[in-house]
Design brief:
Number of strands of chain A: 0
CATH class of the largest domain in chain B: Alpha Beta
CATH architecture of the largest domain in chain B: 3-Layer(aba) Sandwich
Number of domains of chain A: 1
Helix content of chain A: over 70%
Shape of chain B: globular
Order of helices and strands of chain A: HHHH
Structural class of chain B: alpha/beta
Distance between the termini of chain B: 31 Å
Number of helices of chain A: 4
Helix content of chain B: 25-40%
Strand order of the largest sheet of chain B: 16-15-17-14-12-13-11-20
Oligomer: heterodimer
Largest sheet of chain B: 8 strands, mixed
Distance between the termini of chain A: 46 Å
Radius of gyration of chain B: 31 Å
Number of strands of chain B: 23
CATH topology of the largest domain in chain B: Aminopeptidase
Radius of gyration of chain A: 19 Å
Largest interface: A-B, 13 and 17 residues
C-alpha cells in the first residue's frame, strides 16, 4: 500500500489501527507502524492530524523499545540457563541441540 | 536473470562425491572402535568431534621419549605446519606418566590406538595399566552410601590404576579411534612413512599425509539431562513428524544377565503359599571395559572367574539328583548369577536387588503359570563371588567378608570358609581368612544386595588382599600372552576355586562334600580356557564351534560382534552374553526327559505351550559331539536395566543407589587419509578456480538464447517448405 496517496485523516485512522493491533502483544506491528509513519510524524510540517500520528508513533516506539528490552532480557536469561540443561528450560526448548547441552 | 539461473544450476548440479575416492583413502571404522560419550548422573565423559579435532597431520609416538614431541607440537619436524595432529599410539604407552600429556596437549586432534604386538604376561608388574579407577565403583559402594566410609577411602586398585578416577571418567578434548585391522594400520603407517616421516637430517616438507575422523554424539551433559530429553513430555512442544516420539539421544547401558537355577523351586499354583527358602548365590561378573569402552576382553577381570563358576556348575549339573535331594531336605538352594554391568556401578546386581525387593526376581509372575519362585533379599544367606582368578602370587587366596555381618553369623560363615579352604587345599592353595570385625568387602556384587538387606553375607574369593595384585583390571590390556607355565598355573587356580565353590555350596545345601569335590572336570576347564582366553575369537576352537552348531550370526557390524569384548554396551551388540548363555545351558541343561524330542520345532514348543514356565527348552548341540538335543534347564537370560534409568521404574529415576551410566547415540564416520598441501598451494588453487569461474561466466555471458536454439525450420526452408 502506498500511504503517500492517503489523506491525513485516513493516515491517522490507519496509524491508530496499527497501534491498537500492536497493543495486542504484537510489537512487530508497532515497529512497522513506526517506520511507516515516522516521516509523517516527524519530517513533515505539523498539523492536527500529524500531531495525532506523532502521538501514536511515539507510543509505538516506546512500546517497541519496551518489547525489545523485555525480549532481549528474556533471551539472555533463557539462554544462560538453557545452556545448563535445566528442567524448565528444556521444557520450553523447541529443538534440543545435538552433541551439546 | 537466465544467466544467473544457468550458473546456479551448473553449480548445484556438480556432485563432488565422485571425486572423493580420488582425494581420500577411506578406512571403514565399525561401531565400538572409537571413543564416544558416556554419562553418569553428574558428568559427561569420552570424546566428541568438533571443528578443532577432526583433521590433523599423522605423527607417530612409538616410545616414551616421543612424548617430548607432544610438548613441542612436533615443531622441529614440521616447522611450516601450524595445524593439529593425529598421533599413532600403541595402547601399552598409555601409562601414568603419559596420560597427563595426552590430556593436556593443545596440538592433538586425536589418537589412533593400536595393539603394539608386544606381549604382556599375566604376572607382568611393569605395566600398571588398569583403565578403572583407584576405587572401582566408589560412588556405589555400600559403605559410602551407608555413611560408614568416606568416598574412595580404600584405594584397592592403586597399584594398577592409571588415573585416580579411571580412564573412562575423562572428558577428552581429543578423539580416539582403535585400529585392529592390520591392513588398515599398514595403510596409515605407509601414508606416514611416505609423506610425514622426517628425513635423516630431520627435515620434512609438503605434501603431508593428513587424516580426518568424526564421531558425533547426539547427547551431552549428563545422564539426567539426556534421560529427561528422551521423554515425550520433556518439551512443551513435542513435534516429531517421523514417529511422534522423542528421538533417542542416549540409552541406559544394559545387556543380558544370566541366572541359572540347578534346583529351582516352583511357585505354588494358587500363589497363596509363600515358600521361604534360603539361598547361596554363586556369582561372577561378565563385563569389563577399557579406555575405548568396547575394547576390553577382560581375561582376568572377567573370563577366568566365569570359567571357574561354569566348571562348578557343570559338576553340579552332572549329579543334579544329589543336589536336588539335599536341597529338598535342607530347604537351602544354590543358584548361579552372571551379572552384567558390574564394573559400571553394579548395573546387573543393582537391578536384581531391586527386582528381589519387588518380588520380580528372577521372573515376572503370572498367576496362571508356574514359574521359578521369587527370591527375596532376606532369603539370600551368602553371595559367593569369585574375582580375578588365575593371577595369584604364589598359591595364596583371600576370602573377603563384611566384618560386622561376619561377627553376627560367625559360626555358619566360618563353616563356609572352612569348606572353601578345604577345596583350595585339595589343589595345594592356601586361604587367608578374615581378620576381624573391621573387614570391608572390596568392590563386588554384594554391595547391591547389602543395600537391600542387612543380613546378606559376602564371601568373596580372590587372589588379592588389601589391594589388587593384577594391574590391568578393566583395561584394553587385560589380554595376555600366556606361557605354558602361566596357563597351567591359571588352570590350576581355576580348578582349585571351582572346587572351593563346589565344596562351600555342597556343605551349605547339605550334600556330602567328599562326594563332589573331586568331580571338577579339569579337562573342561582347560578346553574352555583355551577357547575363551587363548583363541582369537569366541568361536575359533572346536569345542565352541560345535557348541555353536551354526547358530551364531554376526548381526551387527560392531566391535563386540566381531571381536572378543565383554563390554556391556547399550544394546545387545556383543556376542559374549550369548556365548555364556550357551555354556551355562551346556553346564546345567539336561536331555534326560526330552530324549524323544528330535527337532528344534518340537523342542521350542515344549517351552511355549505349557503352563509350567519354570524351565526353558533349548535346541543345542553337545560341544563334544556336535549332536543337537533338547536341553531342559531353569536358566533365565534377562536384560537388566538399572532402575535409576529404566522408564519402567519411574519412582527410582536417577536414584544414586543404582547405576546411572548411559551412553550417547552417535554417528561414526570413516577415517579419511588425504594429502595436505601448503597454504600457498591452496591459495593458488583458489585463485585458479576463481579465474576459471570468471572466464566461464564471461563465456556463458556472451551467449544468447539463440545460441542454444537450433532452428529446425531452417533446413526445411532450404528444402522449399514455407517457414
Amino acid at each position: 500500500m502506498d500511504i503517500s496517496k492517503l489523506t491525513d485523516v485516513k493516515k491517522v485512522d490507519l496509524c491508530k489501527k496499527y497501534f491498537l493491533i500492536g497493543a495486542c502483544f504484537l510489537p512487530l506491528v508497532w515497529i512497522v507502524n513506526t517506520f511507516w509513519f515516522f516521516s509523517d510524524a516527524f519530517c513533515k510540517p505539523i498539523n492536527a492530524h500529524r500531531r495525532q500520528i506523532r502521538k501514536y508513533v511515539i507510543a509505538s516506539i516506546v512500546g517497541s523499545i519496551f518489547w525489545i528490552i523485555v525480549l532481549s532480557a528474556w533471551e539472555i536469561f533463557f539462554q544462560h540457563y538453557r545452556a545448563q540443561g535445566l528442567v524448565w528450560t528444556d521444557f520450553l526448548t523447541f529443538v534440543f541441540p545435538t552433541g551439546r547441552v | 536473470m537466465k544467466k544467473w539461473l544457468v550458473i546456479v544450476l551448473i553449480i548445484a548440479g556438480i556432485r563432488c562425491d565422485g571425486f572423493s575416492d580420488q582425494v581420500f583413502r577411506t578406512l571403514f571404522i565399525g561401531e565400538g572402535n572409537a571413543c564416544y560419550r558416556t554419562f553418569n548422573k553428574t558428568h559427561e565423559f569420552g570424546c566428541q568431534a568438533n571443528r578443532e579435532n577432526e583433521n590433523g597431520l599423522i605423527v607417530r609416538i612409538d616410545k616414551q621419549e616421543d612424548f617430548k614431541n607432544l610438548d613441542s607440537c612436533w615443531n622441529s619436524f614440521y616447522p611450516k605446519y601450524s595445524g593439529k595432529y593425529w598421533a599413532l599410539l600403541p595402547v601399552n604407552l598409555i601409562r601414568r606418566d603419559t596420560i597427563s600429556q595426552l590430556k593436556s596437549s593443545k596440538c592433538l586432534s586425536g589418537i589412533v590406538l593400536y595393539n603394539s604386538g608386544e606381549s604382556i604376561h599375566p604376572g607382568d608388574e611393569s605395566t600398571a595399566a588398569s583403565h578403572d579407577a583407584e576405587c572401582p565403583n566408589a560412588a556405589s559402594d555400600y559403605y559410602l552410601q551407608d555413611k560408614n566410609e568416606e568416598y574412595c577411602e580404600r584405594k584397592i586398585n592403586s597399584r594398577g590404576a592409571i588415573t585416580r578416577d579411571g580412564l573412562m571418567k575423562i572428558d577428552w578434548r581429543i578423539q580416539m579411534v582403535f585400529i585392529d585391522n592390520s591392513t588398515d594400520l599398514e595403510i596409515i603407517e605407509k601414508c606416514y612413512s611416505m609423506f610425514n616421516k622426517p628425513k635423516e637430517d630431520g627435515s620434512s616438507g609438503y605434501p603431508y599425509c593428513g587424516m580426518s575422523f568424526r564421531l558425533a554424539n547426539m547427547a551431552a551433559g549428563n545422564s539426567e539431562i539426556c534421560y529427561r530429553r528422551g521423554k515425550n513430555d520433556a518439551k512443551l512442544f513435542q513435534m516429531n513428524i517421523d514417529s511422534g516420539d522423542a528421538p533417542q539421544l542416549c540409552g541406559a547401558m544394559h545387556s543380558d544377565n544370566i541366572f541359572a537355577f540347578p534346583t529351582p523351586i516352583p511357585t505354588s499354583p494358587t500363589n497363596e503359599t509363600i515358600i521361604t527358602s534360603k539361598y547361596m548365590m554363586v556369582t561372577a561378573r561378565m563385563d569389563s571395559f577399557g579406555m575405548i569402552p568396547e575394547i576390553s576382553v577382560g581375561e582376568v577381570s572377567v573370563l577366568t572367574s566365569i570359567i571357574s563358576v561354569l566348571a562348578a556348575a557343570r559338576s553340579m549339573g552332572t549329579q543334579i539328583e544329589k543336589w536336588q535331594k539335599a536341597s529338598n531336605t535342607s530347604n537351602r538352594n544354590v543358584f548361579f548369577a552372571f551379572f552384567n554391568g558390574e564394573s559400571l556401578d553394579y548395573i546387573g546386581s543393582g537391578a536384581a536387588a531391586y527386582q528381589m525387593e519387588n518380588g520380580k526376581f528372577p521372573q515376572m509372575i503370572r498367576s496362571d503359570r508356574t514359574h521359578i519362585h521369587p527370591i527375596r533379599p532376606n532369603e539370600l544367606d551368602y553371595i559367593l563371588e569369585v574375582q580375578q582368578i588365575g593371577v595369584a602370587k604364589g598359591r595364596k587366596y583371600y576370602v573377603h567378608v563384611d566384618g560386622e555381618r561376619y561377627q553376627q553369623n560367625k559360626t555358619q560363615t566360618d563353616r563356609v570358609i572352612d569348606r572353601i579352604e578345604r577345596g583350595l587345599r585339595s589343589h595345594a592353595f592356601d586361604l587367608e581368612k578374615p581378620s576381624g570385625s573391621g573387614d570391608r568387602v572390596p568392590p563386588a556384587s554384594w554391595h547391591s544386595f547389602a543395600k537391600a538387606d542387612a543380613h546378606v553375607q559376602s564371601v568373596l574369593l580372590a587372589p588379592y588382599g588389601k589391594e589388587y595384585e593384577y594391574q590391568r583390571v578393566n583395561s584394553i590390556l587385560d589380554k595376555n600372552e600366556w606361557t605354558e607355565d602361566e596357563r597351567e598355573k591359571a588352570i590350576q587356580e581355576i580348578e582349585a576355586v571351582s572346587t572351593a565353590i563346589l565344596a562351600a555350596a555342597a556343605d551349605y545345601v547339605g550334600v556330602e562334600t567328599d562326594e563332589v569335590v573331586a568331580k571338577v572336570d579339569k579337562k573342561l576347564i582347560t578346553t574352555i580356557f583355551d577357547c575363551l582366553i587363548t583363541s582369537n575369537f569366541w568361536f575359533d576352537c572346536d569345542f565352541m564351534q560345535k557348541l555353536d552348531g551354526g547358530r551364531y550370526h554376526k548381526l551387527f557390524n560392531s566391535y563386540g560382534f566381531n571381536q572378543k569384548s565383554t563390554y556391556i554396551s547399550m544394546e545387545s551388540h556383543t556376542a559374549f552374553p550369548t556365548v555364556l548363555h550357551w555354556l551355562t545351558i551346556f553346564a546345567l541343561g539336561s536331555d534326560k526327559e526330552t530324549l524323544n524330542v528330535k527337532s528344534e520345532k518340537s523342542c521350542s514348543h515344549l517351552g511355549q505351550f505349557q503352563a509350567f514356565q519354570m524351565y526353558t527348552y533349548t535346541w543345542q548341540p553337545n560341544p563334544y559331539t556336535g549332536n543337537f538335543s533338547c536341553l531342559k534347564s531353569a536358566i533365565v537370560k534377562k536384560v537388566m536395566v538399572s532402575p535409576a534409568v529404566d522408564s519402567q521404574t519411574p519412582e527410582e529415576e536417577m536414584n544414586t543407589r543404582y547405576s546411572t551410566w548411559m551412553e550417547s547415540v552417535y554417528i561414526i564416520e570413516s577415517v579419511n587419509l588425504y594429502l595436505m598441501e601448503d597454504a600457498s598451494f591452496e591459495y593458488t588453487m583458489i585463485l585458479i578456480a576463481v579465474i576459471s569461474a570468471l572466464l566461464s561466466i564471461f563465456a556463458v555471458g556472451r551467449c544468447s538464447e539463440t545460441t542454444f536454439i537450433v532452428d529446425e525450420g531452417e533446413p526445411a526452408a532450404e528444402g522449399g517448405e514455407p517457414l
